[in-house]
Design a protein that fits this description.
Layout lengths: L1 E8 L1 H5 L3 H10 L3 E8 L3 H7 L9 H8 L4 E9 L1 H9 L12 H5 L8 E3 L3 H11 L8
Antiparallel strand pairs: 1-3, 1-4, 2-3
The structure holds adenosine-5'-diphosphate and magnesium ion.
The site of adenosine-5'-diphosphate has 9 residues, from loops.
Length: 139
């Protein structure tokens, strides 16, 4: 089933000029980048995006990190894109991530873990509309 998921290339990656390297892994995995934009998240945008984590002890640190440098927001399309991208990303903590995954290859720590990917089709739809209009997504 062809579906779409939402991705963010996080500040630790843009700071190290890894946008292209991350995109190469995404594309090699068979996911198509159907929308992409580089933006600097405001504190309000980062807080809204990670609202479900607001009671977690790392929330403040997470918002500081996500607003520290530009990010690249993306829509990815492909067969089972939500689950497929979670596989390609690897575990939240890069120490637990499988070989060849983006987080194993590039992530310095559990907090600064290089990429975000939606965890369900419902969340993907809600996350995509926070950053893209329909006409900006070209499948
Ligand atoms: P994922 O991004 O794999 O879906 P979560 O939704 O659990 O992971 O967490 C959201 C983000 O919060 C993570 O990607 C990471 O940037 C940060 N984070 C998660 N756990 C920790 C932690 N223990 N310490 C610091 N930051 C964390
Ligand atoms: Mg998550």
């Amino acid at each position: 089933m062809t579906e779409r998921t939402f991705s963010i290339i996080k500040p630790d990656a843009t700071e190290r000029n890894l946008t292209g390297a991350v995109n190469a892994v995404i594309e090699a995995a068979g996911l198509r980048i159907v929308a992409q934009r580089r933006i600097h998240l405001s504190k309000a945008q980062a807080e809204k995006f990670y609202e479900i984590h607001k009671e977690r002890p790392f929330f403040g640190e997470l918002v500081d990190f996500m607003t520290r440098s530009p990010v690249v927001v993306q829509v990815l399309e492909g067969d089972n894109a939500v689950a497929r991208y979670r596989e390609v990303m690897g575990a939240t903590n890069p120490a637990n991530a499988d070989e060849g995954t983006i987080r194993k290859l590039f992530a310095p720590s559990v907090g600064e873990n290089t990429v975000h990917g939606s965890d369900s089709a419902e969340n993907a739809a809600m996350e995509i509309v926070q950053f893209f209009t329909d006409d900006q997504i070209v499948g």
